[in-house]
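Quick note —
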Amino acid sequence: MFSGIVEGTTRVVDIEEKGTNLIFTFENKFDEKLYIDQSIAHNGVCLTVIDFDDKIYRVEAIKESLDRSNLGQLEKQSVVNLERCIQMHTRLDGHMVQGHVDCAAHMVGEAKDEEGSWVFTFKYPEDYSNLIIEKGSITINGISLTVVEVTEDTVSVAIIPYTYEHTNLKHLKDKDMVNLEFDIIGKYVVKYLERTKR
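Predicted structure written out below.
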């Protein structure tokens, strides 16, 4: 479980194919020692540490994760948002995030500089429109954000300067792909309502 509060970014060092999977090697930016089987969200995708040392660590992404996210588009030196799983004794500053990406979306145009914030707009598959509400929570590349505006196939969010400077959103350009995870509570409510209509 994650909170969507990104701890920082890292870069891809190497990518290795293993059947339909990809093994990613990342720069190890964590001061505390990692451990095997540790869960870390990469652009919002929960991946398990399979190897590490003081300089790098490795994770393996299966086909399902690659098909639903932007991980398959990563290249050497790509910048990735990072968050380690939350600890139960800490404050939950964002919202409940599973690290299970629902779909990918594409940036629409460029970020709009509001002289104190930046507004980003993303186009997503219409099938998911019932899972987004104005002022609700959404996770974009692993970042817990509040929805500013939503249409049948676009969602806009506004970010503060700190988030802009400390995540990979500042690198996004028109048509770049991001990962979306919708609010888990909203998903359960929609599922329940669908079943009660039968």
